[in-house]
Amino acid sequence: MKAVFEDKDTFNLSEECISETQFERGRSLEEAINNLDKTFMELVFSFADRKGLTDVEVQKKANLDRKAFSKLKCGTTRNPSKTTALAIANALELNLDDTKDLLSRARLALSPCSKQDVIVQYFIEKEAYDIYEINVALFEHGEQLLGTHNT
Q: How many whole angstroms separate alpha carbon 7 and alpha carbon 30?
C-alpha cells in the first residue's frame, strides 16, 4: 500500500497500520448481508455451523446449563443476559467485531467503563477463550462470572 503523504514524519500508511476487517478474516460480503436480519440465536447457530460446533458443544463451552441454553434456543428467552451473551461469544471463539455484532442482536454492547467488559475484551484480543481462565480473572476483580446458569 502506498503512503498517503510522502513526508514520513507527517503520516505513513503501511499494511501493518491497517486493521483487519471482518471480510479479510473470512467473512464474505454476501455472508455479512445475509446476516443482517438474524436474531441473536440465529447468528449463534450461523457461527456454530461455520465453526463446526454442535449446540451441546456451544452450551458446554459457554458454561451454561442445558435448561438455560434450551430456553434461548427455543425462543422462550428472547434476549440473554450480558454474561450469557459473552459466554456464548467466548464459546464460539469470536473475534471482537463478531462479538460486538452478536451482542448487538441482544441489544447489548461492550462498554469501556465496565470492568467486566474490559476483562472479557482483553481475553478476546489475546484469543484466550478458556472460560474458566476468564472467570478466574473476573472473580479476582469482583465481577460477575460468564455462563454459570444465567439467561
A: 39
